[in-house]
Design goal:
The structure is a single chain. With 277 residues, this protein is an alpha/beta fold. It contains eleven helices and twelve strands. It has two domains: 98 residues, Rossmann fold (3-Layer(aba) Sandwich); 141 residues, NAD(P)-binding Rossmann-like Domain (Rossmann fold). Helix content is 35%, strand content 18%. Strands 2-1-3-5-6-4 form a six-stranded mixed β-sheet. The model has no long low-confidence stretch (mean pLDDT 96). Bound molecules: NADP nicotinamide-adenine-dinucleotide phosphate.
Length: 277
């Protein structure tokens, strides 16, 4: 197999029209003057295997994978990175020259890089992290926080069995707290992360009491519509350093772009503006 002269990449999901990834990758391709295209592809679950077999033959060098295929796609992949195995989901595929497919998960990388870029003095090792939520994104956040050296994660989720599963998968540094008790652990947080969809435009509010939030706590929200979520607004008013979720979306895209198109793109204000336009 030879590399295509105009490499193609894309994002497969269902639905896909809302995805910001084509805008972001298109911006980077233009900025770096590289040949190539990044395309949104609406793929039904039943077609996933056929689509992945065809894509390399059509000039695709890889793709991102989004809802609802992030877990199911793992059965069509030849090799899965350790971090994707730990997270239990794949969001980036590399179609290799030997015909095999590598599956990776860059969400945790994107989460940490966003904090490192926007809160360079933040040291995860200083104290516990409180993580709200135990869905797919929480798994990536927990994996990356543990990897970054947080001493303890206090995890709370509405559905207890999901948080218990994370405790089981990620070990004793994760402690599960009842959702109704969430307000009581906020003051212990050196880092506070919302991984639920609460606070997102059109979704319910995040009702966790924030009275105990200390000004020393770094607060970040995975929700980025709106960019300044009610959680970030309350945290800023209390003097906390805050980091919005858009940066995670931008940073998680970097490893895929670099593998597919051969140059490392930059996450900066221009990239943010391109995605928001
Ligand atoms: P998911 O797997 O569906 O998990 C949703 C989470 O939100 C679960 O913890 C769920 O709790 C909780 N939740 C939903 N409705 C709730 C309610 N009414 N009360 C209490 N908890 C509720 O989704 P996900 O993939 O983890 O994504 C979560 C959020 O992160 C979404 O808003 C997504 O857009 C965002 N995200 C952002 C980025 C980024 O790059 N910034 C990346 C990935 C995800 P239960 O388990 O009890 O249902």
């Amino acid at each position: 197999m030879t590399l295509p002269s105009i490499p193609l990449a894309g994002v497969i999901g269902d639905p896909i029209a809302h995805s910001k990834s084509p805008t972001l990758h298109g911006h980077w391709l233009r900025e770096l003057g590289l040949p190539g295209h990044y395309i949104p592809l609406e793929v039904k679950a039943g077609d996933l295997g056929d689509v992945l077999t065809s894509m390399p033959k059509m000039g695709f060098v890889g793709c991102n994978v989004t809802i609802p295929h992030k877990e199911r796609v793992m059965q069509f992949v030849d090799q899965i990175t350790d971090r994707a195995t730990l997270i239990g989901a794949v969001n980036t595929l590399i179609f290799r020259e030997d015909g095999t497919i590598l599956g990776d998960n860059t969400d945790g990388y994107g989460f940490i890089e966003n904090l490192r870029q926007n809160a360079p003095d933040w040291d995860p090792k200083v104290g516990p992290a409180v993580v709200l939520g135990a869905g797919g994104a929480a798994r990536a956040v927990v994996a990356s926080l543990l990897d970054a050296g947080v001493p303890e994660i206090l995890l709370t989720n509405r559905t207890r069995v999901r948080s218990d599963k994370l405790r089981e998968d990620f070990g004793a540094r994760v402690k599960v707290v009842e959702w109704v008790q969430a307000g009581n652990i906020i003051e212990e947080a050196h880092t506070l992360v919302n991984t639920t969809s609460l606070g997102m435009a059109g979704k319910a509010e995040l009702r966790v009491p924030l009275d105990g939030l200390r000004a020393e706590t770094l607060v970040t929200d995975l929700v980025y519509t709106p960019m300044r979520t009610p959680l970030l607004e309350v945290a800023s008013a209390k003097g906390c350093q805050t980091v919005d979720g858009l940066g995670m979306l931008l940073h998680q895209a970097v490893p895929g772009f670099e593998r597919w198109f051969g140059q490392r793109p930059t996450v900066n204000l221009t990239a943010r503006r391109a995605v928001l336009a």
